[in-house]
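Incident log, structure service

09:12 report received: a user says their structure output differs between two submissions of the same chain.
09:20 pulled the input from the user's history:
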Amino acid sequence: MTAGGGGTPDGQVWLIAANVVRWRRYGEGGQELRPGTKSYRGGSKVYVVETYAGTGHEQLTTIGRGRHTGTYITIDIPTRNLHTFRAVPVHSPTVLRLCEEAGTGGRRPGRQDAEELAALLGRLSVEYRTSHWAMPHPCPCRCHECLTLSRA
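09:34 re-ran on a clean worker, output below:
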């Protein structure tokens, strides 16, 4: 299934945007914490250009600014490392070019389909974060789930 962008007459394309978790659990039993991911800084905005429905949407192809270079990169990333999924209109020529280069091709859903997929990915990302680690959280924990709960 392709995520995002139905073209409109003004050239606007709809994609799903998300943010990289600020802290993620890592290592033996998830007892260590790392900021962001190897490729993206925590909090970075990324665009989802492809989902893999056959695997339960556990992996997503994303476009975003790389941690080390600041230039746009295209990589696959686990859904659990993203949050705040939303449908957004994209006008950036660089992002649109990278979408085409990623070979996502095919039909691009419009705004409503992108919003529905964003809501689904938001629910799945929470589920994947909570079910991925069998051990309890380290203490103190700064992972995305714990930080979200502490603000409530």
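09:41 both user submissions now match this output. Likely a transient worker issue. Closing.
09:42 reviewer note: The first helix runs from residue 93 to 101. The radius of gyration is 16 Å.
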